[in-house]
From TrEMBL:
Keywords for this protein: Metal-binding, Zinc, Zinc-finger
Molecular function terms, GO-annotated: zinc ion binding
Keyword DNA damage: no
ARM repeat extents: 137-180
Region ranges (Disordered): 451-471
Acidic residues composition bias: residue spans: 451-470
Source organism (scientific name): Rhizophagus irregularis
InterPro entries, alphabetized: ARM-like, ARM-type_fold, Armadillo, FYVE-type_Zinc_Finger, Znf_FYVE, Znf_FYVE-rel, Znf_FYVE_PHD, Znf_RING/FYVE/PHD
Domain FYVE-type: start-end pairs: 38-98
The protein's name in its UniProt record: ARM repeat-containing protein
Length: 712
């Protein structure tokens, strides 16, 4: 009896000569090589000895090259090329040829022997051997194992060999060219369905041995897919239909299943089971990485959007996976998808998906937040991208406590540059929309069409007072402290020029077209704005920062120190609450006969010089004539009165007025419009004018002192 396995394989095929090749080979058939022309070859391809009349030429049926008798002494059947009877083959092709023949045998044990042999060739890593391996059917045989075999041992050997082969950059494309990817997807769906159909089944297929093979197969496929996805040109050809997308999503959510009950008491098996779980976790992470690579390709993005049940819904579910790598790369994929045009941005978070996305930043405690730091960063990036679209930003900001959660994220990750940048950009994009400003600054809205300006102002004041008394704390908890958060981001150690740009943009948007009462909530930002103006050289940032500064602290009118003061009717009424004449407030009679300061400035030019305690005023008329007047300037006129000083309080208390406090008086003085009589000199007055108190930091003092050029 002949125990040679090759003879056994040949006789087995001889018995099936009556079968069609498609039935025998299950579709596995390679193209026969083109034979080298005899006349062009003088020496053997193997031993390089010259041919003679006795040393004849022979063609290898696998590679088509010409060899001598010694180099082509062996014969085997080559069903992969359609040769059922044994044919001549060279020594170099023999190993691959018989292993491929074993793979397509109908005996499982023979197939396993062939699969192990092919794996050995791949693991040796000889590139010349690997080139022959791919050229002469080795790769086709591995794909055949994934396609036609139903044995998990063969699947494990085949996918392991493909994993090793995918590690060679030059050989990666052949896996796709040979059609291997669809069969890998089929294996994912097969094992996903088999394990998840009944994880508690007592079927022998759920023994530790089976689960060990299944976990290895899943990890191998994860490695192959990720290795191909990071090659740009190959990535475009990986997903060809909805089934491909579904397979990758299921791989990212794969669950191993439970051991059979009779094996749960074995400690060695339990240790092995933990290793199996680790493999599955790694496979899920690789699948999530693959999805993030696919999400950068426009055609794959379109496939995901057009199949929301399989694509978008499954992707959102991955945000709450038990595997950290899956959560991280799922969020990254969503960030890539959020870069699509406006047509698709709102589709990304419709149908309840917005709630899943925003739930990523609902942090229970800081430790949990730290465990999801990169996931939170990608989620914030996605939301910042989505907030550029009117419909999608409305879906986002309508989520309860979103703004409050964003503020909390900033406090947890004050040193994370990416998170700070994404949150600042998101808040700046939110602030572009009028309806969002009411949430971000929590001020009440009024209907301008139904109320006059005066009525709207009264309503706004009343509602603001009521909210301040009753709901400020609730609003802050619900909407968050946006202004302090922006300040914290701007003051953080990682705040670079880009972050400062988003901060200034957010403040600029928040201070535009809002009720004047809301400006008071932005005043704490002034030191930050001033610091940005002092340190940032970028012209666009400086322009926006100056715009914000002008809106929050408008310039006061110029106040010449020697001027008598003239008030308009409304201002007179304000200060005449309990007395008819306000002249005693200024220490001189009121003059209403002269032109205003702005009108006089068109006719005259005034220059004031101070030396010692004497001020000299030089007035140039339109006819170029000069009038010089000298007078003493009291020191009181140059003193800034502090609200808490006894002198200021005494001054107010002796004025017999009804103002509630110095704060109220100072606030109203900031809005006084002044006029000046240039014809009357101080020589006709009993004493120089006494200025009203000036509020500290109001901006009036620098304007006032600019009228003088004194040293002391």
């Amino acid at each position: 009896m002949d125990n040679n396995p090759l003879t056994s394989l040949s006789s087995s095929h001889s018995r099936n000569d009556s079968l069609s090749q498609s039935e025998l080979l299950d579709g596995f058939l390679l193209v026969r090589p083109v034979w080298v022309d005899d006349e062009t070859v003088k020496n053997c391809k193997g031993c390089e000895i010259g041919f003679t009349a006795i040393r004849r030429k022979h063609h290898c049926r696998q590679c088509g090259n010409i060899f001598c008798q010694e180099c082509t002494s062996r014969k085997i059947s080559l069903p992969q090329f359609g040769y059922i009877t044994p044919e001549r083959i060279c020594n170099e092709c023999f190993e691959i040829a018989y292993l491929v023949g074993y793979i397509i045998s109908d005996e499982p044990s023979t197939q396993i022997h062939g699969a192990r042999g092919l794996l050995d060739i791949v693991e040796r890593g000889n590139e010349h051997e690997l080139s022959n391996f791919i050229t002469y059917g080795g790769l086709d045989a591995l794909v055949y194992l994934c396609r036609a075999s139903h044995t998990n041992d063969l699947h494990q050997l085949g996918t392991t060999a493909l994993t090793n082969l995918s590690g060679y950059e030059s050989f990666k494309p052949y896996i796709i060219m040979k059609g291997g990817i669809p069969y890998l997807y089929n294996l994912i769906l097969f094992y996903y369905s088999k394990i998840n159909s009944d994880a508690s089944s007592s079927d022998p297929s759920y023994t530790a041995k089976f689960l060990d093979s299944a976990s290895t197969i899943i990890l191998n496929i994860g490695n192959i897919l990720y290795s191909l996805s990071i090659s740009g040109s190959l990535c475009q050809r990986m997903v060809i239909d909805v089934g491909s997308l579904e397979a990758i999503m299921k791989l990212a959510s794969f669950q191993l299943g439970n051991l059979a009950e009779d094996e749960t008491s074995d400690e060695d098996i339990l240790l092995t089971y933990e290793e199996m779980h680790l493999r599955v976790e790694l496979a899920k992470g690789l699948a999530a990485k693959t999805i993030s690579c696919l999400a950068t390709n426009p055609s794959h993005q379109l496939l995901i959007f057009e199949n929301p049940r399989i694509g978008l819904d499954k992707l959102m579910d991955l945000l709450h996976s038990s595997t950290y790598e899956v959560r991280k790369y799922a969020a990254k994929s969503i960030a890539y998808l959020s870069l699509r045009n406006d047509k698709y941005k709102s589709a990304l978070i419709k149908d309840g998906r917005v709630k899943v996305l925003t739930s990523v930043i609902e942090l229970v405690d800081e430790n949990l937040a730290k465990a999801n730091q990169v996931t939170i960063s990608h989620a914030c990036c996605a939301m910042a991208n989505l907030a550029t679209n009117a419909e999608s930003q409305q879906l986002l900001i309508s989520q309860p406590s979103l703004l409050s959660n964003l503020c909390q994220v900033v406090s947890y990750f004050i040193s994370d540059k990416e998170i700070q940048r994404h949150v600042a950009r998101l808040l700046a994009n939110f602030a572009l929309y009028e309806e969002n400003k009411t949430r971000m600054l929590f001020y009440p809205m009024t209907n301008e069409k139904e109320a006059t300006d005066e009525e709207a102002e009264k309503v706004a004041e009343q509602e603001a007072e009521q909210e301040q008394d009753n709901n400020d704390q609730q609003l802050e908890e619900f909407f968050g402290s946006i202004v302090p958060t922006l300040i914290a981001i701007g003051d953080s150690p990682v705040a670079d020029v880009e972050i400062q740009r988003h901060i200034v943009r957010a403040l600029d948007n928040l201070s535009t077209e809002v009720p004047s009462m809301s400006h008071s909530k932005l005043l704490p930002c002034l030191p930050l704005i001033n610091r940005i103006l002092d340190t940032i050289k970028d012209e666009d940032i400086r322009k926006r920062a100056t715009h914000v500064l002008n809106k929050l602290s408008p310039p006061l009118p110029s106040i010449p120190i020697s001027s008598p003061f003239i008030l308009n009717n409304d201002q007179q009424h304000y200060f005449q609450q309990d007395y008819d004449d306000i002249s005693h407030f200024y220490g001189q009679p009121q003059n209403t006969s002269d032109l205003s300061l702005n009108e006089k400035n068109n006719l005259t030019k005034t220059k004031v010089e101070v030396e010692n305690n004497t001020a000299t005023t030089k007035i140039t008329n339109v006819d170029d004539s000069n009038v010089i007047t000298s007078y003493l300037v009291p020191v009181d006129n140059l003193i800034l009165l502090d609200d808490k000083e006894t002198k200021t309080s005494a001054y107010i208390s002796t004025s017999n007025n009804n103002f509630g406090n110095i704060e109220e008086l100072n606030n109203n003085f900031n809005n006084i419009s002044l006029e000046h009589n240039y014809k009357e000199t101080l020589s006709t007055l009993d004493k120089p004018p006494k200025l009203p108190p000036i509020r500290q930091n109001s901006g009036a003092l620098p304007t006032l002192l600019n009228q003088f050029s004194f040293d002391n």
